[in-house]
Design brief:
The complex is a heterodimer.
Chain A (H helix, E strand, L loop, with lengths): L2 H7 L4 H11 L10 H7 L5 H13 L4 H18 L7 H14 L16 E6 L6 H14 L4 E6 L6 H12 L2 E3 L7 H14 L4 E6 L7 H17 L6 E7 L5 H13 L3 E5 L9 H9 L3 E5 L7 E3 L2 H8 L6
Parallel strand pairs in A: 1-4, 1-5, 2-3, 2-4, 5-6, 6-7
Antiparallel strand pairs in A: 7-8
Helix pairs in contact in A: 2-13, 4-5, 5-6, 7-8, 9-10, 11-12
Chain B lengths: L1 H15 L8 H17 L4 H15 L10 H17 L14 E6 L6 H16 L3 E6 L6 H12 L3 E2 L7 H14 L4 E6 L7 H14 L3 E7 L6 H12 L3 E5 L9 H9 L3 E5 L7 E3 L2 H9 L2 H12 L3 H13 L4 H14 L2 H7 L14 H12 L3 H5 L1 H6 L1 H11 L3 H22 L3 H10 L12
Helix pairs in contact in B: 1-2, 2-3, 2-4, 3-4, 4-11, 4-12, 5-6, 7-8, 9-10, 13-14, 14-15, 14-16, 16-19, 19-20
The chains are: A alpha/beta, B alpha/beta.
């Protein structure tokens, strides 16, 4: 049995998978021709087939350069193995996707908790990707795991952002540290860390304002928050998650590059994966910058945040295989 | 960045294709491949790209190559013209009633910027159309969405109608309209909740609201950074609601915004406004013709083409280029080049005009004011000195005289000499260079033309 078959027949993860199917299944309605169709209907492995596979990958926003490289390595593999039947490509494609994501590393995307003192999780990203909502969901999950959680409203810019976080705080049942709108975000961070230490809180989630990566001043502001954290909690590792909306196209790569330069991104939270968008740009980000995906947002409910699992994701990408 | 790679790829393609009279199959294929990649990198939908490049192929074949352009540039010109035609040549105005209450509904996915846009739009229409707007808070789902709209309303001094988040949005808009009538407000902008186009319950809610308020405009907010999915989203909203226009948000980012083209081509809906910043006055009437070259990502090539066809005497430009390539470039030529630059506006324009030089064009480093000084220095030279730069180079007496005559320092005169020398050298090198070497050279050179006015 090939990897492909194994991946799609594993019974133990079925329940988890159902969520992914439910989340990502809507793509079936989309105009994208499924990979399965292509591999079944095409008679030979030729340029026409490769260009159809290319289309499917590009339509998933995987990123032009990554797709071109992917197709090239697929072609090599076909040549090496002297393959002639399109259907046999299934395994190779899944295999190569795994290789592309794993990149010969053991990818551990779990939160690294500090043994002493609070563990900081800083949420960053461009406007409207779902930072505040992801914090709410993450806080809920961490509390369910038995951690004590606090939130810091360091988005002092967007109207209503502080209120939004406070509502999440009430829902989850955790303290929200905030100042007035327009306050220096770093001062909120400073105050929140002080309180988190004082109250021996396990995790402090910091919500930051959405900022486009080409806004130099806003990126400096983020740098300042970073330095505040490093100064207040020296030699402690902390997680910085870049929140990326699944509908984002090629600009996602640029977002990751610039944010990574300023804040050293430890993982990605891929949100809104319950729409028809596949968020393939995260694969390009992983390939080009090595940043793994840590969490995925699969719906509107407070429980709709999951640890990222590459198998589930690839499964979601090609769920149409089972029709 | 992808853009830079593309530009250099283009220039290589250009260099291979010169001196032909008509476009043939090969030229077109080669350039269309680049165009295709460029559009995909800009997030234009795969199918839209495919269809679009097919159309271009037919149009381009056999087309006469314009004087001053090479075949590659000619293809880009055709692509750009078609893109412009597709995007629409003029801004499409918003449809509002002359009398009575005009209603605008804002719809879209979560996080595309509806609430911010509602405020911006109200402010813009108050200013431009003299309307008295009311904002209706119909997003009862997202925590604090109503607060957000209220804060925006307060900042702009525009009333906000809300019934909190316990009431059904259908009731909210109904009562909101009544409130507008009572308060003699004549523009209502409805901020609806962000929703996925596949969420049937919420999409039905929008259909109901539409029935209740019979809007003059239903505007879909589209995040300029959206990828391939833009087509699905826009089609779904359009099918359900027959939207009348789009607002492209977050256009102040560094995205190329290909989603705009996809949406336009697939739905035919015009883009009416663009959000261009965080401040509440940062919204603009959308000018489609400016978007075409941004999406194509070949701004320099396109503006070269436009300038070559409009402002520059082609023959003059060509002979200038030949002159530069031959390496016998003197102060007269430099002065002529200056004049050409002046006619074209920005200094970077001329750099971009030269093949392989666009990477060197850094308008931040050489501003237009410096050109005036350079001209003054050259004008203080004798005709012979302008022809033979080595005369100036050899004699410090001449350099001092020129400095005095032009009112600039001798250091600046020296720097101008270095600049000319570097340019000559670069031109000589470029003639025999492979594209790869050229790229290497470009990346090595940090200050364009060796003249940095900030070095005082």
């Amino acid at each position: 049995m090939g990897i492909f078959q194994k991946l799609f027949q594993a019974k133990d993860q079925k329940a988890r998978r159902q969520k992914f199917i439910a989340g990502m299944a809507k793509t079936r309605k989309a105009a994208i021709r499924s990979l399965k169709d292509v591999l079944i209907t095409e008679k030979a492995i030729d340029e026409a087939l490769f260009s159809k596979i290319e289309e499917i990958f590009i339509m998933a926003d995987i990123g032009v350069d990554t797709v071109i490289r992917f197709i090239a390595s697929l072609k090599d593999e076909v040549k090496k193995r002297k393959m002639t039947v399109p259907r046999d490509l299934e395994d190779v494609i899944v295999d190569q996707l795994f290789a592309l994501y794993l990149n010969d590393e053991i990818v551990d995307t779990h939160i690294r908790f500090n043994e002493q003192g609070p563990t900081i999780i800083l949420m960053v990203g461009v406007n409207g990707t779902g930072k505040t909502t992801s914090i709410g969901k993450l806080a809920y999950q961490l509390k369910a795991e038995g951690k004590s959680v606090m939130m810091a409203a360091a988005d002092t810019f967007r109207a209503g952002a502080i209120d939004q976080l406070k509502i999440w705080g009430e829902r989850v049942g955790c303290k929200v540290i905030s100042k007035n709108p327009g306050a220096d975000p770093s001062s909120v961070v400073f105050e929140a860390i002080r309180l988190a230490k004082q109250e021996s809180c396990d995790v402090l989630l910091i919500d930051t304002a959405g900022r486009l990566q080409n806004k130099v001043n806003l990126m400096r502001e983020l740098d300042k928050m970073n330095r505040t954290i490093q100064r207040e909690l020296p030699n402690q590792i902390y997680e910085t998650y870049l929140v990326i909306d699944a509908t984002t196209g090629q600009n996602g790569l640029q977002q990751a590059k610039v944010f990574h330069e300023v804040t050293n991104i430890s993982g990605i939270v891929l949100t809104k994966l319950d729409g028809t968008a596949k968020g393939g740009i995260v694969l390009a980000i992983r390939q080009e910058l090595g940043i793994p995906i840590s969490f995925v947002g699969l719906g509107e409910k407070i429980t709709d945040l999951d640890y990222f699992d590459i198998e589930d994701y690839i499964y979601g990408l090609f769920a149409d295989f089972f029709e | 960045m992808a853009f830079e790679n593309l530009t250099s790829r283009f220039q290589m393609a250009f260099r291979r294709l010169t001196g032909k009279a008509r476009l043939n199959d090969n030229d077109i294929e080669e350039m269309l491949r680049e165009v295709r990649l460029s559009l995909l990198e800009a997030d234009v939908n795969y199918r839209v790209v495919k269809e679009f490049t097919e159309e271009i192929r037919d149009k381009a074949l056999g087309e006469k190559i314009m004087k001053g352009l090479n075949p590659g540039q000619q293809v880009v010109k055709i692509v750009n013209d078609e893109l412009k035609a597709l995007m629409g040549t003029e801004a499409v105005p918003i449809n509002l009633k002359d009398s009575g209450i005009s209603v605008v509904m804002l719809v879209g996915l979560q996080g595309t910027g509806k609430t911010t846009t509602a405020g911006k739009l109200a402010q813009l229409l108050r200013k431009n159309e003299g309307k008295n707007p009311l904002l209706i808070a119909a997003d009862i789902y997202r925590p604090a969405a109503i607060d957000q709209l209220q804060v925006v309303g307060k900042q702009l001094d525009i009333p906000v109608f809300s019934l909190g988040n316990e009431r059904d949005p259908r009731d909210i808009v109904k009562e909101g309209l009544r409130y507008a009538a009572k308060e003699a407000l004549n523009l209502v902008i409805i901020d609806t909740a962000g929703r996925l186009h596949v969420n049937e319950t919420l999409m039905d809610e929008l259909t109901d609201i539409k029935k209740i308020v019979s809007p003059d405009e239903i505007l879909l907010t589209v995040d300029a950074m959206t990828g391939q999915d833009a087509v699905n989203v826009a089609s779904a909203f359009h099918e359900k609601l027959a939207i009348t226009g789009c607002i492209l948000t977050k256009l102040d980012g560094d995205t190329r915004g290909g989603a705009a083209l996809s949406v336009r081509k697939v739905t035919g809906i015009p883009i009416k406004f663009a959000g261009t910043g965080e401040k509440l006055n940062e919204i603009e009437i959308f000018h489609p013709e400016r978007m075409a070259s941004r999406i194509l990502g070949m701004g320099d090539v396109v503006s070269l083409i436009e300038k070559a066809t409009e402002e520059i005497d082609e023959n003059e430009a060509m002979s200038m280029m030949e002159k530069m390539m031959s390496g016998s470039f003197n102060f007269n030529d430099l002065l002529k080049q200056m004049k050409m630059i002046k006619r074209m506006g920005a200094f970077s324009g001329i750099l971009k005009f030269l093949p392989g030089m666009s990477q060197l064009a850094n308008s931040e480093k050489v501003d237009d004011k410096q050109l005036v000084y350079i001209e003054a220095i050259i004008r203080s030279m004798t005709p012979e000195e302008r022809r033979k730069p080595e005369l100036v180079e050899r004699s410090s007496g001449r350099r001092n005289r020129i400095a005095r005559g032009s009112g600039r320092s001798t250091t600046e005169v020296n720097r101008l000499l270095t600049m000319l020398e570097k340019q000559q050298k670069m031109m000589r090198q470029m003639v025999n260079m492979s594209p790869q070497q050229m790229e290497k050279m470009s990346s090595r050179m940090t200050d364009p033309m060796g003249y940095d006015p900030k070095k005082k």
